[in-house]
Design brief:
Helix content is 60%, strand content 9%. It has helices spanning 2-12, 19-28, 36-54, 60-74, 92-98, 103-116, 154-165, 181-198, 202-215, 220-232, 236-249, 256-273; strands spanning 78-79, 100-101, 121-124, 131-136, 139-144, 150-152, 178-179.
C-alpha cells in the first residue's frame, strides 16, 4: 500500500496526470498485487479491437455510436444498477474484468478507449451522474456510458435535472464543463469515501480522504472531514493539524466555529498525551 500511495502522490503532482494509471493506483491500495501494466494493456487491446469498427464511422456521431456498440453490446460493459454501491464498481481493474461499473468508471473506460482511437473526448461532472462529451468542429455530443453510451438530447438532459432537483432547473453550461484528470480521480475517491463512511470503515475512508487532498490540496470540506475522522480514530495530533490548517485557509467558512472548538479540544488531548 505504501508503494501505491507514493506512486499516487507522484502522479498527483504531474500535469496532466494520466487518468487510467491514476484510477488503477486507487485500486492498487485495495489489491496490492495488482499489475497496473496488465490492465493498461487490456485497455490498449480494447482500443485495437475497436479500431476497425469505429474507423468505419463517417463522422463523430457515427464513431460515438460505433464505440458504444463495441463496448456495451459486443464487449458487454454495463451499469451496475442492482449493486450500485459495491466498491468494486469504483475499481478500474474490477470494472474491466467484471464489465460492470458506475457512471464515472464506465466513463473512464470510454475515455481511455476512445482517446486511443483519436476521438476528442472529455469527462463531464454532471450533477450526481458522470457523463462523457465528444467534441468536433460542428459542436459537441453528451454521452451516458451508464446506459449503453446513449447520446443525450438537450431535452433529456433538462429532464434529468428536473428529476434530480424536483423542480425546473436551468441548464447551466458549467454543468457540462469538461473535467480534468484530477477532478475525475478525486470524484472516484469521493464515491469510495461515501461507501466506506456508510459502512463505518474508517481506515479505508481515511485513505480515500488522504488521496483526495493529494489531488486537491485546497479541498477544504475533505480537510475538515479528515480532521474529524482522525479525532474519531484518536489520532489527535493529525486531527489538530488538519483543523488548524483548515482555519488558516478558511477562517470565515461556515464550519470554522466548530473547527475552532475542535482545536481547543484537541490541544487539551495532545497536552495530556505529552
Amino acid at each position: 500500500m505504501k508503494d501505491a500511495r507514493r506512486e499516487f502522490a507522484m502522479l498527483a503532482a504531474k500535469e496532466p496526470a494520466p487518468l487510467a494509471r491514476g484510477a488503477l493506483l486507487i485500486a492498487k491500495e485495495e489489491y496490492p498485487e495488482l499489475d497496473i501494466e496488465e490492465y493498461l494493456d487490456k485497455l490498449a487491446t480494447l482500443a485495437r479491437e475497436a479500431e476497425p469498427i469505429v474507423r468505419a464511422g463517417e463522422d463523430t456521431v457515427e464513431r460515438v455510436q460505433l464505440l458504444s456498440h463495441f463496448l456495451f453490446e459486443l464487449k458487454g460493459f454495463e451499469g451496475n444498477a442492482e449493486n450500485y454501491n459495491d466498491p468494486r464498481n469504483s475499481f478500474l481493474n474490477d470494472v474491466i474484468d467484471r464489465r460492470l461499473g458506475i457512471p464515472i468508471t464506465l466513463s473512464v473506460v470510454y475515455l481511455e478507449v476512445g482517446r486511443r482511437l483519436g476521438m476528442n473526448l472529455y469527462g463531464v461532472a454532471f450533477p450526481t451522474h458522470f457523463l462523457v462529451k465528444a467534441v468536433d468542429e460542428r459542436g459537441e455530443l453528451i454521452i451516458d456510458p451508464f446506459v449503453g453510451g446513449k447520446i443525450l438530447a438537450l431535452d433529456e438532459i433538462r429532464a434529468r435535472l428536473m428529476q434530480i432537483y424536483g423542480q425546473p432547473v436551468e441548464l447551466n453550461p458549467a454543468m457540462l464543463k469538461p473535467r480534468g484528470t484530477r477532478h475525475i480521480l478525486a470524484q472516484m475517491l469521493r464515491n469510495l469515501k461515501i461507501i466506506y463512511m456508510g459502512a463505518s470503515d474508517w481506515t479505508r475512508a481515511l485513505a480515500a480522504l488522504d488521496r483526495i487532498i493529494m489531488l486537491e490540496p485546497r479541498a477544504l470540506d475533505e480537510l475538515v472531514e479528515r480532521g474529524g475522522l482522525f479525532e474519531r480514530l484518536e489520532c489527535f495530533k493529525p486531527a489538530l493539524d488538519d483543523f488548524q490548517s483548515f482555519l488558516s485557509q478558511a477562517p470565515e467558512h461556515p464550519a470554522a466555529e466548530s473547527a475552532r472548538e475542535a482545536v481547543l479540544r484537541l490541544i487539551r488531548q495532545v497536552a495530556l498525551i505529552n
